[in-house]
Amino acid sequence: MGILDQFSLKGRIALITAGAGPLFGSSITEGLAEAGATVITASRSLDRNRQFAESLRARGYDAHGMAADIIDPGSIAELHDRILGEFGRLDVLVNSALARVGGGFENQTYDDWIHSASGDMAGLFAITKAFIPDMARQRRGSIINISSIYGVTANDPTLYEGTGMLQPPHYCFVKAGMINFTRYVANYYGKQGVRANCISPGGYLSDQPQAFVTRYCHRVPIGRMLENEDIKGAVVFLASDASAYVTGANLMVDGGWTAL
Q1: Which pLDDT value is given to residue 23?
Q2: What are the residues facing 196 on neighbouring strands?
Q3: Which CATH homologous superfamily contains domain 3-252?
Q4: Sheet with strand 92-95: strands edge to edge
């Protein structure tokens, strides 16, 4: 098999939670589709998923939009049964959904943390557990969890000064836990043919105040924020046979942020 063949995802079935989202999700889905995978996007917004899937099909890709709520175990079970019923298997699972909770440390409440835990932690566990037995039976599967630089380092409060932006504390907590959960899954299921890896992206350029963008770009070695094309290669690599001997890794796609 040549090196380009190793990166091909032709014939693979990939599920991306929040895969039609305006940040990482849509870029991830697009990248997997461009590599040849049949892609399924799922989140609470069925209309958004269907519309995004339709836009990909218009470009010649095999894409499908479905509904799922990562906070609801019953919804996850329905998604699992539908995918297995329609496609017979799942080869790639990308966990990029978040139960978004805003506010800084002073503003967040106990209930905010419980809401985050029920989605970002319990939801990650539930959807991973739903599909892993199928991957283990077929002796092949790649799970990719989308963490963050803030799962590796603490956020820098000086970036946000005077911008009105607040970095919620649960985000660091959840993203750090996701990295070690990935390692656990990699070790537990490696001998059954299932690989699990993390990607920790840097800050995504998304209409932030100019003061924040300027500070961020000054701090990061590459000198700019992450954009749509920057995460595609990492996801395709970890989903494909090109990374067949890679598991339990946390791939930094951060422009050198954590190299400082």
Answers
A1: 80
A2: 143
A3: NAD(P)-binding Rossmann-like Domain (3.40.50.720)
A4: 63-67, 38-43, 13-17, 92-95, 141-146, 194-201, 250-253
